[in-house]
């Protein structure tokens, strides 16, 4: 290298491109024979690149120039190439420096979404069949009565899952739900309502009513004697007792010779109390005379409309597609016909049944995928067939007791549609198969329903659908929501032990109900009780106080640049915790959408923020607004995903109801802020001049006047007054609670309550303690 270090560098290009090592060495030796390597000359980058390709000096003694060049380069670089790290070779002296080799970080394995799949009874990795698109069918209600909290349990839970898949995991969810408007329960209830109203219109006299009631009680008493289910027996006994109590005053009035309005009032009272007993009796005698199909359609239309109102009130998203059985009868007939053509169904006396034995014995098919241990449970199978379809005559039409109806021949007093087997109506299970199959095809990603639908409904759905499509994968993931109990007792509409959604919403808001559901696993039993709802209320209060504090902080005027303050150790630690909590939330959502753990992580994050703000307040320093705003927006975002916050709210819970929160808060708060600052100035002057009357008026404004308007003022020594716009009713309850605590503490009684951080606090004779082992609440 007697000349420039880069003079011959281009000649290396062809040499370095030779793949055969022996040929490359010969070419390099020929090239180096034209160059001189003397001590003190710098290496070029081309020399370094060529040197890197060699593991040692050439073994062939004829390659003299390569051997000499190799010794020269080794002397300069200080070690043979094999001993040096691949990214550590750099040109030295006046040569060009090379970029070191870059290696990506090892990272961590991202967690995958797993869902509890009833088909496997384990948490399976969720993999949609078509990219990000998810097809989902959910069993809807049978609309013959008011929607109750059991419905809320299922549809709020599925709404949460749907929102998380769509808005958090960013799947393209196509959600279908059905309305069952043809069913044994609907037929029987519609007939009974029609016959009872017709009977009421005859205006039966007192004596006639009592005579008819005695006749109706005979089959009712027989039914009571035959009932073995303890819950059902207890319900019938309660009904019998209530009817007897309502009949006694009327019998007494007749014996006393009463007449007129007083007697008519007792007649109406007995009619209402004995409606179920009389309706059953009337249906047994005249049910077959009800032939007008409109009677059977009016009832489900009314209750379907009420169901949709309830879902809207609960903030449950409407389905992308809603199907009604009455609108899909032609498709159902075609579906049944193909099952028969495939050899898995048979006609019998105008009805069509599914051949469970033939299906189970066919290779590639399996009956009872979800609950195989329940196959043969005749009680469950009879409940699935319906009260009007389990007579001895109907049961004798089956080849096997386990077979179930695909199509039912209609009897007098039942709606009917024409079909190849005679006039009839769809079976219960077939409706979902036909409607879902029509919309979603031979295989769907998710099928959802309540836990009690697993057998026989969903097992029969799977069998008849796979018989139709001749496959074994009609549903990939079966999700079942857990039961709902009421204060530990089984909830059942048939047992008249249920709470309607409308009644529940009179006591608690839709958000509070949803928070209660979020605090429990969607697949486990949820107990709807005072304790459950109190936990939800406390959680709501904790979050709401945090949001109000952050809003107050953000309202304080500050220059644009001044909001970006230097982070101290407290902000750094809070930010680290924030990101850890976000990671924990993600992990929990991947784990079967575990909202219970998510809410606990969010609660812990709010608690840390509250402690941070309290420490700042104690030091008379304002908290870091940007960091707290970021955390508040994240929590708001998560609550929006769960459906607990309406879309209009930008931060925290809305004030004044959906659609009004932003206008109300943004319009009113500037005026309240001015009022607060004026009051603060008045209080300062009153203290300086020692005018207690003015201080009392200021306190009355805070404690008595503004709470009536839903406004809370919080005075802190040495800091500006905090202004919060909150729910008026909640604020008034809070004021009453504080008064009771103050009065009890003043009387020397021990009381306890929860502070803004969720900690239990107590007071005894004016002394407060931060924790109790056995708190005694007022």
UniProtKB/TrEMBL annotation:
GO BP field: cysteinyl-tRNA aminoacylation
Obligatory cofactor(s): Zn(2+)
Assigned EC number: 6.1.1.16
Entry keywords, A to Z: Aminoacyl-tRNA synthetase, ATP-binding, Cytoplasm, Ligase, Metal-binding, Nucleotide-binding, Protein biosynthesis, Zinc
Residue ranges occupied by any tRNA synthetases class I catalytic domain in the UniProt entry: 126-536
Keyword field contains ATP-binding: yes
Leader peptide range in chain numbering: none
Gene3D superfamilies per record: 1.20.1050.130, HUPs
Pfam families: tRNA-synt_1e
Protein name as it appears in the record: Cysteine--tRNA ligase, cytoplasmic
Species of origin: Bos indicus x Bos taurus (Hybrid cattle)
